[in-house]
Amino acid sequence: MKLKPHSPLPTQQRGFSLTEILVGMTAGLLLTAGVIQVFVSSKQGYRIQEALSRLQENGRFAMEFISQDARNTGFLGCGGSTSRFANRLNNSNQYAWNFSAAVEGFEATGAGTWTPTLDATVTSALSNRDVLTLRHSLGNPTRVINHSASSAPIQVNTVKGLSQFDIAMVSDCIDIAIFEITNDPTVANTLEYSTGSGTPGNATDDLEKKYTDQANVAQITTSTYYIRTNPEGIPSLYRKRGVDPSQELIEGVEDMQILYGEDTDGNQEANSYVTADNVANWNNVINLRISLLLQTLENNLASSPQSYTFNGATTTPTDRRLRRVFTTTLNLRNRTL
């Protein structure tokens, strides 16, 4: 009997050698490191673009806030600079109520000092930053319907936007009177201006004339723009209106510098641009040249501190934020009508 040949055992499986494992691990680590590097670079690029987009938006909004008030600065209805002006408020020459001065500037001339001297109601302003005050109308004027006597309530077409204790101006093409509304104007669309209530209150309840239906009434206020640090420690643009507390408008506004265009020969063009401490007559200021320095809210965006030039000086900061300068020239159009 012939025996079958013996079948060999199946070939046994072999594992990876140590060298192969190390090579595979190295390749995997290199691939992972590459993926991580791409992710980190993409994330950093996104952070930079996001921060710059927000910075750009903040700069645009900051300029828009100031521009809106500048466009309405010095509004006197159909009256002009030759109209008779009667401010019936108490303490009418004080900072918040001095509506005869449409624009005022305060030049930063040292640590915590401004020229002219900054009013004490503007608090916590950062040193070496300029301060701008604009006195302007708010909202749309409303037409006078009836005013039977110089001390009688004024009936108007609508009181939309007007409230008790607002400061208002009634004007025709001859006279202008400033007063505080002392009643609820929604009652019969009437505006009263009694003495003895409100802040600053009215010094008299006589507007010196009876206004006809050719006159208009508009709310007016004093707005001051300046730079201070917000509760998070970020320099920001603040606005103070009347006697209300200052309100933060835009964060990340690091500096503000302003030049004032003076028309000294009456041709409705600025002959020169000067700092606030060199303005000869505020009534001649017809333009504002405003420069804002904004910083990104996030730090560590750049690989090293980025130098910037602002107001003629180059500075290298200690942080790694990004900064941009925004500059615009605004026309005080009510001064050139």
From TrEMBL:
InterPro entries: N_methyl_site (IPR012902), PilW (IPR032092)
Chain segments annotated as transmembrane: 21-40
Keyword terms, alphabetized: Membrane, Transmembrane, Transmembrane helix
A Pfam family hit: PilW
Domain of life: Bacteria
GO biological process entries: type IV pilus assembly
UniProt protein name: Type IV pilus assembly protein PilW
Source organism of this protein record: Nitrosococcus watsoni (strain C-113)
